[in-house]
Recover the amino acids of this structure.
């Protein structure tokens, strides 16, 4: 637990509390297919964020009346573990978590070809094991990978990243301390090939030029994350191929 | 869990009419793409509330009541009063509204209105501190949707602002551990006037202030809240699609213009 509040969020060289430049992402680690039972899953570490995402479905809708005749229903739950933040969070869903569940669902629905699976549900679970600012964005990045891992037809992967304002300067991918003391937060989810912004929220104060610049910074970061997502997916499937090839070898000898 | 909403069965023909009219540059109620429905605001409609306002935005009708009580501050802001926004989608307003605890739509509505007021620092919360760390004034903003014909976010946030501007609070005196309320009423300290502007995307067209008929055919929604100096203080995207970067650039500029016009209407109604 860290409760130190540094006086300044930027040093003389313009570097941030964790030594990053203003336009630099935190270290990101992505893992695809980490869970055994889920149809698709992914794990992301971004700074101190540790987030698991899992997809179940398409599966039969329960209760049946929630099913839609022309497409799949996507259900989403964003949830924070009680130990994920400094002070224990009650496991009951807060208003914030209910809102985030909604905006995360709406950030991913544009990419899923839901009309291929009428009368089913696709359930999406985003579990924040440790939160370090920007957890909704990291959650979206992971959830989109979990959807792909589940083999659900999608237009493309969705990546998300936030831009904030610290000491009057726009800064990419705010950490927890920067988020709490910063002057603005602009989380963005983006589909690079379709040029669609599918999540956009803002709090704090931004002028119009700041908004435009911040949006561009976030979109560039989403493009970087998008490349990392593709690498992570390829990684998993190339590993499967290696295992398969190893198994095949004895047969060739025989 | 948040699930894909089940839209009420709108006749396909009606859907097509709404979409086609927008594609031709018109709208079902003959407005332009960038214009609002007529706005009427009444303030002071509930005498027992500290402040109140009722808005008619076309056929959408929202009532906001403000109640101010004494309570405890949050531990991380011991010198600030507390702002609480709640929204009720009252069952008499629409056939799809049901009694019970607020659903995700009501929570989103309340949180978007709250974000505008909080982030623009519209209420001077420091002036609501009675005894540091112990007693502060708590401002309850209750948004009551009475008739739902679309764009509840703008109707709710405009009514909330008018109600806050209309609110009068008692004078408080601290004697030992007791808080004495004197009937001498003063206005709630207001520093900023955030106004939200909500856009809908129907096919590739962007419209302002979507009515319910338009909400049922639109792919995505975006709310931009503008504070008095013309900066953005809150945003929220909703709906099952997204916006291109070009659309977003256009939207924020329209938002600034419409917000200024609507702010003038609210201030006139609240007699400021």
């Amino acid at each position: 637990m860290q409760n130190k509040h540094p006086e300044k969020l930027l040093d003389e060289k313009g570097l941030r509390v964790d030594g990053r430049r203003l336009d630099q992402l935190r270290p990101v680690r992505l893992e695809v297919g980490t869970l055994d039972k889920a149809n698709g899953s992914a794990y992301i570490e971004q700074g101190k964020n540790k987030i698991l995402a899992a997809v179940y479905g398409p599966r039969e809708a329960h209760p049946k009346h929630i099913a839609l005749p022309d497409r799949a229903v996507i259900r989403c739950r964003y949830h924070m573990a009680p130990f994920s933040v400094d002070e224990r969070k009650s496991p009951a869903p807060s208003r914030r978590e209910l809102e985030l569940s909604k905006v995360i669902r709406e950030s991913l629905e544009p990419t899923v070809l839901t009309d291929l699976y009428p009368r089913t549900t696709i359930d999406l679970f985003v579990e924040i094991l440790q939160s370090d600012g920007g957890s909704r964005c990291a959650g979206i990045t992971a959830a989109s990978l979990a959807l792909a891992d589940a083999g659900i037809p999608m237009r493309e992967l969705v990546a998300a990243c936030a831009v904030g304002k610290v000491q009057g300067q726009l800064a990419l991918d705010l950490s927890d301390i920067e988020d709490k003391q910063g002057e603005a937060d602009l989380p963005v989810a983006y589909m690079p090939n379709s040029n669609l912004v599918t999540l956009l929220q803002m709090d704090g104060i931004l002028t119009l030029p700041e908004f435009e610049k911040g949006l561009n910074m976030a979109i560039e970061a989403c493009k970087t994350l998008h490349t990392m997502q593709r690498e992570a997916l390829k990684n998993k499937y190339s590993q499967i191929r290696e295992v398969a090839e190893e198994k095949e070898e004895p047969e060739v000898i025989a | 869990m948040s699930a894909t909403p089940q839209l009420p069965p709108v006749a396909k023909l009606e859907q097509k009419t709404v979409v086609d009219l927008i594609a031709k540059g018109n709208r079902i109620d003959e407005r332009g793409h960038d214009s609002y429905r007529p706005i009427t605001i009444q303030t002071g409609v509930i005498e027992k509330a500290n402040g109140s306002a009722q808005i008619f935005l076309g056929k959408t009708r929202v009532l906001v009541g403000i109640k101010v009580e004494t309570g405890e501050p949050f531990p991380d802001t011991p010198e600030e009063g507390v702002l609480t926004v709640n929204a009720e989608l009252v069952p008499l307003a629409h056939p799809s509204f049901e009694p019970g605890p607020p659903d995700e739509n009501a929570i989103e509505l309340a949180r978007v209105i709250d974000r505008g007021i909080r982030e623009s620092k519209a209420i001077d919360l420091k002036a609501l501190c009675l005894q540091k760390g112990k007693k502060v004034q708590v401002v309850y903003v209750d948004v009551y949707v009475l008739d739902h014909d679309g764009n509840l976010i703008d109707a709710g946030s405009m009514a909330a602002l008018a109600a806050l501007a209309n609110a009068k609070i008692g004078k408080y005196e601290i004697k030992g551990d007791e808080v004495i309320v004197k009937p001498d009423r003063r206005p709630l300290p207001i520093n900023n006037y955030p106004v939200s502007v909500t856009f809908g995307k129907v096919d590739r067209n962007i419209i302002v202030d979507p009515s319910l008929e338009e909400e049922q055919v639109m792919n995505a929604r975006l709310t931009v809240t503008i504070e008095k100096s013309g900066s953005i203080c809150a945003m929220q995207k909703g709906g099952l699609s997204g916006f291109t970067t070009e659309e977003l650039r256009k939207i924020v500029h329209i938002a600034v213009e419409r917000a200024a016009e609507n702010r003038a209407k609210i201030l006139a109604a609240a007699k400021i």
Q: What stands out?
A: Chain B has a mean pLDDT of 94.
